[in-house]
Amino acid sequence: MALDPGLAPHLATKLLRRPGLSVTTTLDTAIQRAAIMALGRQLIGLGETRARDGAVIVLDNASGNVLAYVGGVGGHSTAAQVDGADAPRQAGSTLKPFLYAAAIEAGYLTAASILDDSPVQLDTASGLYVPQNYDRGFKGPVSARSALAGSLNVPAVRTLLLVGVDSFRDRLFDLGYQGLTEDGDYYGFSLALGSAEVTLLEQANAYRTLANGGRWSPLHLRTDDETITARAIVDPVAAWIVSDMMADPGARARTFGLDSALRLPFWAAVKTGTSKAMRDNWCIGFTDRFTVAVWIGNLEGDSMRAVSGTSGAAPVWREIMLALHRDHPGRQPPRPPGIEAR
């Protein structure tokens, strides 16, 4: 399908390395336009004093084809040439699904395990580390399911103590987060809360790995990109259970309410994240067929004002998901053998 480079200027800059070069991408014109419109509408609605920039990636889960690549939409941006889809930004809570998957895979937790959401102080080389929840409150004993779905910070740090910082860093690197080149001590316990910098493109493919039962393969931006056999990174049982936790509207109700932008009229697993000082806002999720990743923030690094996970990126994610599944509602992937419901 012919695609005007002006419809994907950031990708055109990324792929067109010399004058006169012609490249056939995997983008779908209709999906690209839908993503641009959804992001543009949301940024207009938020207003330039709250957030100026955003980016969207849409993936086909089966093939790894990038169907939409929106690095920004201009508007009131003060850094419109910067590719928001491939710029390193702080991950916030979006790394938590991979942490819980690692703990479930190792047998440390089940979805029903009880974690203590109460104040904790951890000795580190640089002094005491005292993690806080987003709302500065504590919920007491909570299930791992509720802790992940409700994005609670203290239970995530307690889970990292079980998994180990080095093991978690290694898992994230294997999932394609190529910017995590330091050892675990460099990131410390805050890695559970997404202190590392990642790109939207990396985020989308890592979540696609969960959608594909824990099997990772590289993305395709060009139709002639080599197809590489997927390799198993996350145990399929752990991937399925974590996906089920992220798709549970009841489990996230305490934090997000029952009728937030994260709830769709069909099955979808989703996670939001907000980085330190409100600089980055993420919403990434998948169905059986597509993965959609959205980032909203300010590319110059200044903080947003009054923008949360469900008011910033989530409405864009929801609008795109509804458009993608207009004729074919999302379905939960089949349950792999070895899972016991109790």
Brief sketch in words of this structure:
This protein is an alpha+beta fold and 342 residues long. It has helices at 9-15, 29-46, 96-105, 144-149, 153-163, 165-174, 184-187, 200-211, 236-246, 253-256, 314-324, and strands spanning 53-60, 66-70, 89-90, 114-117, 122-124, 127-129, 140-143, 197-198, 215-216, 231-232, 269-274, 280-286, 290-297. The radius of gyration is 19 Å and the shape is globular.
Classify the oligomer: single chain
The value of Rg in angstroms is 19 Å
Overall, the morphology is globular
Q: How far from one another are the termini?
A: 49 Å
Helix content: 25-40%
| Strand arrangement, major sheet | 2-1-13-12-11
Strand residue percentage: 15-25%
Write down how many β-strands occur, each being a DSSP E stretch of 2 or more residues: 13
The unreliable regions are: none
Order of helices and strands: HHEEEHEEEEHHHHEHEEHHEEEH
